[in-house]
Amino acid sequence: MTFTTFKPYTPKNRTSKTRTPKTRIVKAAALHGALLAALVLLAAGQTPAQAAAPRHALRGDWLYLTVTRGDSRSSDTRGTLLLCDPPQGHAHAAEACAELGAAGGDIDAVPPTSVFCPMIYAPVTAHARGEWKGRQVDYTRTFSNGCVLAARTGHVFALDT
Protein backbone atom coordinates (compact mmCIF):
# COMPACT_ATOMS: atom_id res chain seq x y z
CA MET A 1 0.00 0.00 0.00
CA THR A 2 1.31 3.41 -1.04
CA PHE A 3 0.73 6.54 0.95
CA THR A 4 0.80 9.97 -0.62
CA THR A 5 1.41 12.98 1.40
CA PHE A 6 -1.33 15.49 1.40
CA LYS A 7 -0.19 19.08 1.15
CA PRO A 8 -2.31 21.15 3.53
CA TYR A 9 -3.84 24.40 2.35
CA THR A 10 -1.89 27.56 3.08
CA PRO A 11 -2.44 31.01 1.65
CA LYS A 12 0.96 30.82 -0.06
CA ASN A 13 0.01 27.95 -2.34
CA ARG A 14 -3.38 29.39 -3.25
CA THR A 15 -3.49 30.83 -6.79
CA SER A 16 -5.81 33.37 -8.33
CA LYS A 17 -7.61 30.51 -10.05
CA THR A 18 -8.60 29.02 -6.73
CA ARG A 19 -10.04 32.25 -5.28
CA THR A 20 -13.71 32.10 -4.78
CA PRO A 21 -15.93 34.64 -6.50
CA LYS A 22 -17.23 35.63 -3.05
CA THR A 23 -13.76 36.85 -2.07
CA ARG A 24 -13.58 39.05 -5.17
CA ILE A 25 -17.01 40.51 -4.46
CA VAL A 26 -16.09 41.33 -0.86
CA LYS A 27 -12.85 43.01 -1.95
CA ALA A 28 -14.63 44.99 -4.69
CA ALA A 29 -17.29 46.14 -2.22
CA ALA A 30 -14.62 47.23 0.26
CA LEU A 31 -12.77 49.15 -2.44
CA HIS A 32 -16.00 50.77 -3.60
CA GLY A 33 -16.85 51.80 -0.04
CA ALA A 34 -13.39 53.27 0.54
CA LEU A 35 -13.57 55.30 -2.69
CA LEU A 36 -17.03 56.58 -1.83
CA ALA A 37 -15.86 57.64 1.64
CA ALA A 38 -12.87 59.47 0.15
CA LEU A 39 -15.11 61.34 -2.31
CA VAL A 40 -17.49 62.36 0.49
CA LEU A 41 -14.59 63.67 2.56
CA LEU A 42 -13.21 65.63 -0.40
CA ALA A 43 -16.59 67.15 -1.19
CA ALA A 44 -17.21 68.06 2.44
CA GLY A 45 -13.81 69.71 2.68
CA GLN A 46 -14.43 71.93 -0.35
CA THR A 47 -17.97 73.08 0.41
CA PRO A 48 -17.21 75.64 3.15
CA ALA A 49 -14.42 77.23 1.11
CA GLN A 50 -16.69 77.64 -1.90
CA ALA A 51 -19.52 79.07 0.19
CA ALA A 52 -17.21 81.68 1.76
CA ALA A 53 -15.79 82.84 -1.59
CA PRO A 54 -17.54 85.79 -3.27
CA ARG A 55 -19.51 85.00 -6.42
CA HIS A 56 -17.70 87.57 -8.53
CA ALA A 57 -15.70 90.71 -8.12
CA LEU A 58 -17.16 92.55 -11.14
CA ARG A 59 -19.30 95.65 -10.79
CA GLY A 60 -21.88 96.94 -13.25
CA ASP A 61 -23.25 95.15 -16.29
CA TRP A 62 -21.16 92.22 -17.50
CA LEU A 63 -21.58 88.96 -19.41
CA TYR A 64 -19.20 86.07 -20.00
CA LEU A 65 -19.96 85.03 -23.57
CA THR A 66 -19.02 81.77 -25.31
CA VAL A 67 -19.70 80.48 -28.81
CA THR A 68 -19.22 76.78 -29.58
CA ARG A 69 -19.18 75.65 -33.19
CA GLY A 70 -20.32 72.09 -33.86
CA ASP A 71 -22.05 69.80 -31.41
CA SER A 72 -21.70 70.03 -27.64
CA ARG A 73 -18.64 67.73 -27.63
CA SER A 74 -16.75 70.13 -29.88
CA SER A 75 -13.61 71.76 -28.65
CA ASP A 76 -14.06 74.80 -30.91
CA THR A 77 -15.24 77.18 -28.19
CA ARG A 78 -14.41 80.86 -28.06
CA GLY A 79 -15.23 83.13 -25.19
CA THR A 80 -14.76 86.62 -23.80
CA LEU A 81 -15.87 88.82 -20.96
CA LEU A 82 -18.08 91.71 -22.07
CA LEU A 83 -18.02 94.69 -19.71
CA CYS A 84 -20.41 97.54 -20.37
CA ASP A 85 -19.33 100.29 -17.97
CA PRO A 86 -17.29 101.36 -20.00
CA PRO A 87 -17.77 99.04 -23.00
CA GLN A 88 -14.82 96.68 -23.36
CA GLY A 89 -14.02 93.01 -23.73
CA HIS A 90 -14.59 92.10 -27.36
CA ALA A 91 -14.28 93.59 -30.82
CA HIS A 92 -17.82 95.06 -30.90
CA ALA A 93 -18.24 95.88 -27.21
CA ALA A 94 -19.84 99.31 -27.75
CA GLU A 95 -22.41 97.96 -30.22
CA ALA A 96 -23.16 94.89 -28.09
CA CYS A 97 -23.63 96.98 -24.94
CA ALA A 98 -25.92 99.40 -26.81
CA GLU A 99 -28.05 96.53 -28.15
CA LEU A 100 -28.26 94.92 -24.71
CA GLY A 101 -29.09 98.26 -23.11
CA ALA A 102 -31.96 98.83 -25.55
CA ALA A 103 -33.22 95.29 -24.84
CA GLY A 104 -32.93 95.65 -21.06
CA GLY A 105 -30.24 92.98 -20.91
CA ASP A 106 -32.53 90.34 -22.45
CA ILE A 107 -30.66 88.72 -25.35
CA ASP A 108 -33.92 87.29 -26.73
CA ALA A 109 -35.25 90.87 -26.98
CA VAL A 110 -32.40 92.09 -29.21
CA PRO A 111 -34.11 92.97 -32.51
CA PRO A 112 -33.16 90.55 -35.29
CA THR A 113 -31.62 91.86 -38.47
CA SER A 114 -33.24 91.14 -41.80
CA VAL A 115 -30.77 88.98 -43.73
CA PHE A 116 -30.93 85.88 -45.90
CA CYS A 117 -29.04 82.99 -44.33
CA PRO A 118 -28.11 79.76 -46.12
CA MET A 119 -30.00 76.64 -45.13
CA ILE A 120 -26.84 74.80 -44.14
CA TYR A 121 -26.87 72.99 -40.82
CA ALA A 122 -23.67 73.84 -38.96
CA PRO A 123 -24.84 74.20 -35.34
CA VAL A 124 -23.55 77.03 -33.18
CA THR A 125 -24.30 77.25 -29.46
CA ALA A 126 -24.25 80.64 -27.76
CA HIS A 127 -23.99 80.91 -23.98
CA ALA A 128 -24.04 84.03 -21.83
CA ARG A 129 -23.72 84.14 -18.07
CA GLY A 130 -23.44 87.25 -15.94
CA GLU A 131 -25.33 90.17 -14.47
CA TRP A 132 -27.33 93.00 -16.00
CA LYS A 133 -28.77 95.80 -13.85
CA GLY A 134 -28.49 93.57 -10.77
CA ARG A 135 -30.35 90.67 -12.43
CA GLN A 136 -28.65 87.32 -13.12
CA VAL A 137 -28.41 86.39 -16.79
CA ASP A 138 -28.09 82.79 -17.98
CA TYR A 139 -28.74 82.35 -21.71
CA THR A 140 -28.06 79.28 -23.85
CA ARG A 141 -29.36 78.75 -27.39
CA THR A 142 -28.28 76.60 -30.31
CA PHE A 143 -28.68 78.13 -33.76
CA SER A 144 -28.60 76.27 -37.08
CA ASN A 145 -25.51 78.20 -38.26
CA GLY A 146 -23.41 81.29 -37.61
CA CYS A 147 -25.45 83.49 -39.93
CA VAL A 148 -28.63 82.80 -37.98
CA LEU A 149 -26.76 83.46 -34.72
CA ALA A 150 -25.54 86.85 -35.99
CA ALA A 151 -28.96 87.78 -37.36
CA ARG A 152 -30.74 86.86 -34.13
CA THR A 153 -28.32 88.24 -31.51
CA GLY A 154 -26.73 91.23 -33.27
CA HIS A 155 -23.24 92.10 -32.07
CA VAL A 156 -23.55 90.36 -28.70
CA PHE A 157 -21.93 87.10 -29.86
CA ALA A 158 -19.74 88.60 -32.63
CA LEU A 159 -16.54 87.23 -31.09
CA ASP A 160 -14.62 86.25 -34.25
CA THR A 161 -13.83 89.70 -35.63
SSE blueprint:
Elements lengths: L20 H32 L9 E8 L7 E8 L2 E2 L4 H10 L21 E9 L2 E9 L2 H8 L8
Antiparallel strand pairs: 1-2, 1-4, 2-3, 4-5
Low-confidence stretches: 44-56
Calculate the mean pLDDT score and round it.
Answer: 76
Major beta-sheet overview: 5 strands, antiparallel
State the share of residues found in helices, binned by percent: 25-40%
Compressed to H and E, one letter per element, the order equals HEEEHEEH
Kindly name the structural category.
alpha+beta
Number of β-strand runs: 5
> For the terminal residues, how far apart are their CA atoms?
98 Å
- Main-sheet strand order equals 3-2-1-4-5
- Rounded to the nearest angstrom, the radius of gyration is 30 Å
Q: Report the principal-axis shape.
A: elongated
* DSSP summary: helix tally: 3
Provide the β-strand percentage band: 15-25%
Describe the structure.
By secondary structure, this protein is α+β, with helices and mostly antiparallel strands. The protein has three helices and five strands, in the order αβββαββα. It has helices at residues 21-52, 93-102, 146-153; strands spanning 62-69, 77-84, 87-88, 124-132, 135-143. The chain starts with 20 loop residues before the first helix and ends in an 8-residue tail after the last helix.
Write a concise synopsis of the structure shown.
This protein has 161 residues and is α+β, with helices and mostly antiparallel strands. Helix content is 31%, strand content 22%. The chain has helices spanning 21-52, 93-102, 146-153, and strands at 62-69, 77-84, 87-88, 124-132, 135-143.
